[in-house]
Amino acid sequence: TTKSSPVVLSPALSTHMPKSLKKRSLHISNSRDNQHATATPPPDISSRGPDPSPIYIKLRHEWSRRTTLLVFLAFTIIRIMQSLPFGEILRRLLPALFHAHVPYASPIGDCDETFNYWEPTHLLLTHSASLQTWEYSPVYALRSYLYVFLHAAVGLISRTVIFQTIVPICSTLGGAQTFLTSPGIHKIVIFYCIRAALALFCTFGEIVFLYGIASRFGRRIALYTSFFLLFSAGMGLGGAFAYLPGGFSMVGIMVAFGAWFYEVGRVQNVTDKKSHSDAYASMNALKWMICICAAGTAVILGWPFSVVCVIPLALDTIYHTGFMPSLKIAVVISAFLITLSMAFDNIYYERWFFTQWNLVNYNKGEGSEKYGTEPWNYYVKNLLLNFNGAFVLSLLAPVVILLRGIVASSITYYSPVRLLIYLIPYYVWFVFFSSLPHKEERFMVVVYPMICLAAAMCLEYSFQLVDYFSQNSTATSQSNPSARTTPRTNKNIILVTPPRRSLISWIIIALILLAYIAISISRFYSITYNYSAPFKVYTELAQHIERTRREPDQVINVCVGKEWYRFPSSFFLPGKNTRLRFLRSDFRGLLPKYFADWPYSTSSVPTNMNDDNREEMDRYVDESQCHYVVDLDLPQQHEKHYCADENNWHVISEMHFLDAEKSPQMARAFWIPLGYSERRNVYGRYYVAERVR
């Protein structure tokens, strides 16, 4: 929409307004400061009867193209940098400024991401040795190969573009060629390309989400939400680029909710009332179509449990479009996606499965509890760490919304119930997963954007209430009716506009946002600085193996003990003959094993697999079979200190890694400056040792 021309909906157009809005509305454009607007003269309402209901006029707040582009660029730059080894990039570009105390990269937060998604992707891309979990056994078939195939396709495109196009073209540029073709780096580059693609995918969802928020709730709330999203430690530490179905569902839900929030207003360059009405109806139908498609994709191709989030959206879609039209679209989309998923899985499993149903069926009992349980307040602590003050605001949002609707109805266009309908998926999700015994941080990723929206609404509406009471109290004391918050053209026309924001309010809001950003950066820096050693150590190991390998077909065994769950994936093992082997440690659960040889890798039934997390002894090798050992050396560990055995092992690369048991909670959770965290935290050695020849 343009910024200057006002908009008044015609009577024909008003018939297409959402049924849930009992107040008739006229959309008009707003000025840059979002406070004042000039509306065209209202229609003659004298013929409607002696006491017609008031017509509420709401300001439109859509982002301009320039604003959308700037926000997109900001999110793209930040997200891609977070997904890449940004510390190494900064050291290479600006070695004088970034030579020490710079984190290497955002670590992988869950071994499920490595073994259930990166490893099958490595298999589809390289057709070489990759580790398999019991979920990919055809006996259980809990994971879909369609989801993996989509990411493998991104890796294939990246490999083709970089190593078959860019490298030959840049062959005369020694620096670029040396970096991209250095020994052992080939597969690692593909790994980070897929990660960057996930970050771009998330950025797309975030922009659609924010655009819908600006349209529905105003540019202020969209601005606050963008700050909460962009600087969130939860999003920056993997939520935005984690290779997990929950992250995929999060993006799909952001697109669905962005369309749900979007208000279809005036159609440009249409003057005829009938054509205008038809164009409005078409755009409205497209809006609900996007909602259904995006939500269905999030549930069927992503994480089936995300259906909990889309139930309110589904009910609202039925309310606005009717049961049968919604059902027809949902059935068509679901049938297409389910058929596509089953077809892909039949290609790889060579059996007909609907893997999402298998996953839900396994988790409906006590299946997930075999992998650990957590107390009821686990998510409260976790979200406080990742969202700090924004999480607190999100919990207070319902109270503020209800209070605003009760005591300041003149500045409220949507009823409190309508606003809470938009937020209820977050609260239902939070309560539902908090009630389950098995809890993991990644389960909350789906509602990360909703936490930011709820926090933004709480922040804006709280200060609207403050400004409302302040200005109305001033107007009453001065007996000046023109100073009241709600301007009226006559008794039947109410212009819904927020009260003028005072300078003090803006300063306090800015301080709140700056405090949130500072705490979030502190959290992000602490986690990346304390836990990013595996990426660096395995990268240097890959380069070392390629430089020192005696024969191209020589099998190299890289062994891990208690650090098996921090293995970043086979993308960091060079060539096709480097294997990860397991040394027995205190862990007594089920470890993955290698897929069968290609092309029977995905359809062969692996031996010694179980769904009880029961230890299988055939996973382990003897230390004598290891060429390299990767381990974290801690004083209190029960396992062997390989780095101390200088007669058999020689450390070739190491990096600091936090000893969480001996470090204070506050110092390790956040990076506190002035040397506080450095002095209080205790670090171990994360190293790779080579066998002495």
Describe the structure.
The protein is built from 21 helices and eleven strands. It is α/β, with parallel strands linked by helices. Strands 7-6-9-11-10 form a five-stranded mixed sheet. The protein has a four-stranded mixed sheet with strand order 1-2-5-4, with no helix packed on it. A hairpin with a 2-residue loop joins strand 4 and strand 5 (493-496). The longest helix has 32 residues, at 186-217. It starts with 10 loop residues before the first helix and ends with a strand. Mean pLDDT is 84; it is low at 1-57 and 479-495.
Strand and helix layout:
Elements: H1 11-14, E1 25-29, E2 55-60, H2 65-83, H3 86-93, H4 111-126, E3 131-132, H5 145-169, H6 174-180, H7 186-217, H8 219-230, H9 233-239, H10 245-261, H11 273-302, H12 307-321, H13 323-349, H14 355-363, H15 378-407, H16 416-434, H17 448-478, E4 488-490, E5 493-496, H18 503-531, H19 533-548, E6 556-560, E7 578-582, E8 593-594, E9 628-633, E10 649-658, H20 665-669, H21 676-680, E11 683-691
Parallel strand pairs: 1-2, 2-5, 6-7, 6-9
Antiparallel strand pairs: 3-8, 4-5, 9-11, 10-11
Describe the structure concisely for a colleague.
By secondary structure, the protein is α/β, with parallel strands linked by helices.
Shape: globular
Estimated radius of gyration: 28 Å
Instruction: Count every beta strand, where a strand is a DSSP E run of 2 or more residues.
Output: 11
Which spans have pLDDT < 50 for at least 5 consecutive residues? 1-57, 479-495
Tell me roughly what share of residues is in helical segments: 40-55%
Strand percentage: 5-15%
End-to-end CA span: 72 Å
User: How would you characterize the largest beta sheet?
Assistant: 5 strands, mixed
Secondary structural class: alpha/beta
Mean pLDDT across residues: 84
In spatial order, strands of the major sheet run 7-6-9-11-10
Number of helices: 21
